[in-house]
Structures
1.
Amino acid sequence: MAAKQKSILSEKILLDALDRVARNPLGYTVLYVNISRLKPKNRHPQFVKVIARLFDSVVGTTKGVMFVLSNGDIAILSKNTPPEVVDEAVKKLRTGLAADPILSHDSRDFAKVYSFPTDFVSFYTKIEQLQAQHLNSVQNNPPVKRPLRAEEIDKVVEKLDEIDISELVKRQSILEAKSGGSFSVYMQEFFVAIKDLSPYFPEDLDLTADRWLFQYLTQVLDKKTLSAFGYAELEQWPQKISLNLNLSSVFSKEFVLFAKSFLKPEQKIVVEVQMMDILNNMEQYKEVKDILHKGGHELLIDSLNPQSLDMINIDQLQPDMIKLFWEPLMAYENNKESVKAAIEKLGSKNVILAKCDSQEALKWGLEHGISVFQGPFIDTIEAALIKKECPFSNKCTTQECLKRHRLLRGRFRQECQSLENLEKLL
């Protein structure tokens, strides 16, 4: 299990390193050692350790970085790896494993050098495919998860410091349905999905299992997400930026700096908070709402359903908005007075029907007076409308377009041949 944890982490970090190298790849090389092509008896963990030590000389000479991948292969990223250094390491290895077929002939079958920029695309694709194969294997044989422990939290936070969060921040549009079947962007939610952090941590570690440790972790992540906006490559921003935050994060210097320095005068923040956070900090909730209103911003209560909506007092909490999560069962429950009451009190644009995954969800919302929607079905509508106006629409699929549209920066986003159209707000 430990080897699997390390390998998937190494592949992800290697791809991140390649993304950075892609900006100026000239002179970089990767020495790729095909450990997986050795005979099974020569892939014994003790042999692999010996092989890794032999190639330490390459790392030291070139000031490179070594990655042990999911299939046991070794990749050493460096600048200008001298061929004689590679040959010397393979020569030493051949002495001990001369009987292995891959070492009895051309050493390039065993240790190959990829030179950038010429070999960059082929090598990047190779690592992407290797990671995908490994992820598929893990999904078919998922490890038993264990909760994050208190003594591990500092190391998790340290790891977050090493991650380029700006490449993980995504946006998801909330669309307003107009008369005649058209749509426009009402606001966009910006967030970091916990599943996107998972590859950076051991596979058996569940970051969400312990509620209190997870809450502390999200507070750290809130600050890093707010700081990441300064690195975004977007040119076109929505007038309303929605952020899913802890109440306490509104008091952070990162939030204050974001509100004062990043936003344009016409832009507003919608802070989405969880009901559990409110119930644990009612006085803080009121204070946060006052702070937001003074700045011209708004507060939204997130993750509600008809049952939880029955239990809260909208008149007492007085949120600016709420987000109602769609459930298929709602289509068969027509007498939800709490939903109707919320729409009457807050307005049709302030009750968002989220997690819309079908035409049925959209139809239900419209029939109940809701005009703003979010979810997979809405994402598909948005991507289709973007592609409709794109002069290069035949170059990618709707899902690829959607994936690029959601990113704030990074190599995959930059592959779009019409970034201006990709960013266009409906």
2.
Amino acid sequence: MSRELKIAPSILAADFAILGKQIKKAEEGGAKYLHLDVMDGRFVPNFTFGAPVFKSLRKVSGMFFDCHLMVERPLDFIAPCKDAGVDSITVHYEALGEKTGEVLQFIKSEGLSAGLSISPDTEADAIAPFIKDADMILIMSVYPGFGGQKFIEGSLDKIARVREMTKEFDTDIEVDGGIGVKNIKKVVDAGANVIVAGSAVFGAEDIKKAVEDLRAAAGEKI
């Protein structure tokens, strides 16, 4: 099954003084998703933004808001993020364990797409019982909580394994961490179709061109 390539710039790497302008440039370059990382200072060491920022961004962008909850208590964040206009909420298997399926089902009952993320030290097979409940699987190719890390090469085998596990379902495979024009093609070839890029997009002098370059490097005709 052929799946549409979606570039998802992460605002974690953006300049918040001109965030609205940068997002528009990414969208002009063909970015389909906007990746929104929420950190609580407990599941990961850092804090980030939350629902008030997303609500403000929704006023200036019609992109698909891809919200990634790196938090210990994801249920506390679902309603505020929904009210702020996000389209998808991704939760971590490491934060939920046996409750993962229940939370994914709740997210979908709220009219949102439900994503499930695994960190680098978690084997793909750990999430096998929950594949049927997830619209998207997010594979972290760096350790969550910090931007600008180097892509973990072992993630390619995990991507391929998750793609094999989801072959009976219409599941997006998202990868986040250390992806740029030099390695996006092998990530896509391994089975990913949603690519999170932070510094590769918002760290570029020409944001629109950076997105176009990623799409071209992935093999998309533009």
3.
Amino acid sequence: MKNRKYIIIIGALLLIIVGLLGFFIGREYWNGSPENTQIRALDEPKDDHVLANVRNTSIVQAVKQVGPAVVGITTRVYDRDIFNRRVLVGESVGSGVIFDQKGYIATNYHVVGESTEVNVLLASGETVAGKVVGGDAATDLAVVKVEAQDLPVAEFGDSDSLVVGEPAIAIGNPLGLELRGTVTVGVISAVNRIVNPLEQRFPMIQTDAAINQGNSGGALVNAEGRVVGINSIKIANTGVEGLGFAIPINSARPILKELIEHGKVRRAYLGLWAVDRTIAARYGYEWGARENGILVMRVDPQGPLAGTDIGPQCFITAVDGAAVTTLAELRARIDAHAVGDEVRLTYRYDGREDTVTVRLAEAK
């Protein structure tokens, strides 16, 4: 009887062990089956916060670098009613880029206009008061300053090194602050683009990265995570897509510096009104192929050219020995100089070439 009792106990233990083994083996099979894998994927999302290399592209890294330094800028415009009360008549929203730890922000002049105080929405979600340090309507650039600590700062790149076809990333606030920090991606479509030859101070960067109202003042970034342009305008005619323009950062640097130091741009002034061959042709005026340069139409009688032989019907062909054939080139040569600098102008009149040195005045 004793032996029989032990045999029953041993048998029961063996049954329990076999049952447990079957349970564990079945559970592993069930968990590893394709159907259950799908269910587990739905019920237990994996969140390891590590991007695979195929996802962590240069664009992702560039946005991480520059995105926190792109801000929203809100400007309120006030007027006086018939009772001389201050009345809000409008509000504009744009973008800006923090480029200095002291709180300096680059943006477009048309974003802040003649305002002196603005509100700045940081990437952290905090809104702080900002002050317009200075603006320049001619280049559509302005500087805003905020008083805040530990600000993220964007690094400026070299816009002169841009190559057509390389990636271009636009970061800004299209259509308002609700869409702040929007990223659009395209390529550099063209460099040294002249959009408005009569008023444009320097060539622009063209990109097909989407730039919309509210993006103005935001950053155009290369794949290295450096700001190469300040987004400015978009051509939005019917049937036109992918025509956005940005101010090259190399052209913006000296302007931003002048605005910080003086509140305005002290621009060198030559004192003439002129046209190049392309602009003249638009108005039906042409000159012989043998005449190159800029045709002088009128000279400021109080300007630097007063008292020289340069006057109407003269062709300015070079500045400091460098040939000029367009108004944009002439402006660029003059803008590269400071007020009070002397420049050497080469000109032609009635087939005769001569040179004169003049001292640049300050544009009023």
